[in-house]
Q: What sequence folds into this?
């Protein structure tokens, strides 16, 4: 096997999207931002479309342009851009990328780009319903939709969507969920009175797609669920798509009482075998998972021994027979007993989103599974 690799099962991504698609009457936008949550932008997007996604979504515009350059021609939304990206906005408009608009300066920017290109810009107006992140504040919403209606009447924009994002959908029943749905409906009413009737209304992320059908509207936007990781409890038929592993780089027998890795935060309690794994925090392995991160080696679970270093970490495997080159699995689907991304999240005090997304570019992606 390779020194290190993240094996990505494209059939799992395709199947996860098909499962999500079967659970809703809405269209599905597969969110492939952040390099497909670390799984690979273009391969993940193609697998998602094969699974039934009719839209794709990215945060930054450049990733949307990369998808267009790769030949993906489904409707595509990008939503996070700044005033210095006006050139990128113009390229997005030309490439048929929909852009999110949360305020007057963004609307003005797309209007300017539309005039330069001689074509209407496709926009989705975003309302802040309670996340207090991106999106137009409720007090400013009437003015934004009025301006958008004027620009649409002038042929400079086409309002394709109105959308928002949940703050607490991963905690079903949380009181903010109903308040956000109500605020979203109110924002749609305001838009309608201003003459803005979008083609698609979308609010549901992965958690809401799985648990809140009343928030599906015309389009759902699953992200992490596309890759087989659920943000909510329960069996939703999702299959984790990534397996992270490295080949044992060194195996040695040592005496009891040996300090292991920087700071000697682990000391061998007996004569034992130490295995060196060539993955470290430069590859995205959490440094604070020292003495906690689980691995699967030789059919047995073991734990990172001592600190995670920049390029490597050590595992005490006791008397287990391990040879150089043997695979050491950090996480995978879990079906064979190996740790999962959630196990690593628990060990590092974070979320599984971060575990898969942070795996760095020097870890090759190996793609398996037909699309």
A:
């Amino acid at each position: 096997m390779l020194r290190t690799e993240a094996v990505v099962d494209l059939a799992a991504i395709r199947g996860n999207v098909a499962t999500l698609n079967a659970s809703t009457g809405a269209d599905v936008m597969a969110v492939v931002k952040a390099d497909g949550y670390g799984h690979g932008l273009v391969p993940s997007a193609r697998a998602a479309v094969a699974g039934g996604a009719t839209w794709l979504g990215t945060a930054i515009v450049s990733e949307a342009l990369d998808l267009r350059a790769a030949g993906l021609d489904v409707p595509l939304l990008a939503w996070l851009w700044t005033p210095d990206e006006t050139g990128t906005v113009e390229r997005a408009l030309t490439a048929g990328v929909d852009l999110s608009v949360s305020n007057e300066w963004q609307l003005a920017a797309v209007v300017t780009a539309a005039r330069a290109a001689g074509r209407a810009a496709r926009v989705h107006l975003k309302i802040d319903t309670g996340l207090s992140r991106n999106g137009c504040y409720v007090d400013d919403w009437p003015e934004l939709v009025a301006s958008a209606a004027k620009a649409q009447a002038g042929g400079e924009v086409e309002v394709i969507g109105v959308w928002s994002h949940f703050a607490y959908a991963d905690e079903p029943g949380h009181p903010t969920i109903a308040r956000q749905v109500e605020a979203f409906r109110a924002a749609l009413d305001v838009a309608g009175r201003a003459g803005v009737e979008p083609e698609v209304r979308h609010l549901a992320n992965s958690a809401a797609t799985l648990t809140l059908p009343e928030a599906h509207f015309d389009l759902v936007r699953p992200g992490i669920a596309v890759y087989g990781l659920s943000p909510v409890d329960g069996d939703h038929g999702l299959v984790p798509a990534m397996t992270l592993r490295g080949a044992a780089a060194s195996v040695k027998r040592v005496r009891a009482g040996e300090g292991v890795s920087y700071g000697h935060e682990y000391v061998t309690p007996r004569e034992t075998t130490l295995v060196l794994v060539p993955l470290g925090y430069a590859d995205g392995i959490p440094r604070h998972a020292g003495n906690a991160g689980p691995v699967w080696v030789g059919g047995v679970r073991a734990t990172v021994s001592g600190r995670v270093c920049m390029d490597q970490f050590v595992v005490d495997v006791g008397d287990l027979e391990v040879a150089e080159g043997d695979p050491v699995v950090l996480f995978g689907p879990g079906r064979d007993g190996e740790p999962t991304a959630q196990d690593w999240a628990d060990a590092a005090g974070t979320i599984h989103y971060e575990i898969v997304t942070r795996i760095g570019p020097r870890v090759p992606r190996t793609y398996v599974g037909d699309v």
Summary: The chain has a mean pLDDT of 97. The two ends are 23 Å apart (CA to CA). The longest strand covers residues 157-163.
